[in-house]
Amino acid sequence: MKVAVVTGxxxxxxxxxxxxxxxxxxxxxxxxxxxxxxxxxxxxxELKKEGLNPSFHQLDINDQESITRLRxxxxxxxxxxxxLIQNAAIAFKGKDPxxxxxxxxxxxxxxxxxxxxxxxxxxxxxxxxxxxSSVASFVxxxxxxxxxxxxxxxxxAVKTEDDVVKLMAEFVELAxxxxxKDKGWIDSxxxxxxxxxxxxxxxxxxxMLADSRDDILVxxxxxxxxxxxxxxxxxxxxxxxxxxxxxxVALLPPGTKTHGKxxxxxxxxxxx
Length: 272
What we know:
The chain is α/β, with parallel strands linked by helices. It has helices at 12-24, 37-48, 64-78, 100-122, 139-146, 149-156, 161-175, 189-207, 239-250; strands spanning 3-6, 29-34, 55-58, 81-86, 126-135, 217-222, 262-264, 267-268. It is built from 9 helices and 8 strands. An 8-stranded mixed β-sheet has the order 3-2-1-4-5-6-7-8, with helices on both faces. Strand 7 and strand 8 (267-268) form a beta hairpin. Helix 1 packs across helix 9, helix 5 (139-146) crosses helix 8 and helix 7 (161-175) packs antiparallel against helix 8 (189-207). It starts with a strand and ends with a strand.
């Protein structure tokens, strides 16, 4: 019996991922998670009306105690975890008046640091054959085309999670004094965090090759331009269509040798 967790899944792409996994994992257990218990349980009821039977667990990825509770419950109830879809993220609207320095700090805290905390807490309970699928974005290749050559060299040189952490921290620090563009970065906190997820995924995927547990894959996926609250309802994909590549990566068959890559439209996108 497979056990799956989707972070940030009471609505949008995460909700669609839960729906798809419930259909694919016959007899499996799929956890819909939400910061707010009320909204999460409302989402559960919506899926039950469709004849599906997801489970619920409260999860706030910005709260380490919440992440730890999830880990402990998964270990106690199921002996670990088979599928993790890391969907939870935030994005400031284009016309948001929040100063860029704050946008950089807040975006990085959720989209990268909290993401990493979930990885570090839940990866130890991944079972052999587990799959991790993290939400990246088509904006990561866009960022790659715009940052300086020096930054590209530094991204290409990362060897550890801490190397990526240092790059992301540098961006936030420079943004506090509006000097990030002078050092080769661009004016987009969201793009930067998603590039961080791609770099982190590369490191984590390669690290799993040396793990004693067999056949664990860590990859990320670009859902495309999806009509969600985050995109203000714009986009050319429905949430179910946006979930397709994420779920594809989460269900890669045994023996797949694709580690630490970003997928777009269910194919590897080697943009860097």
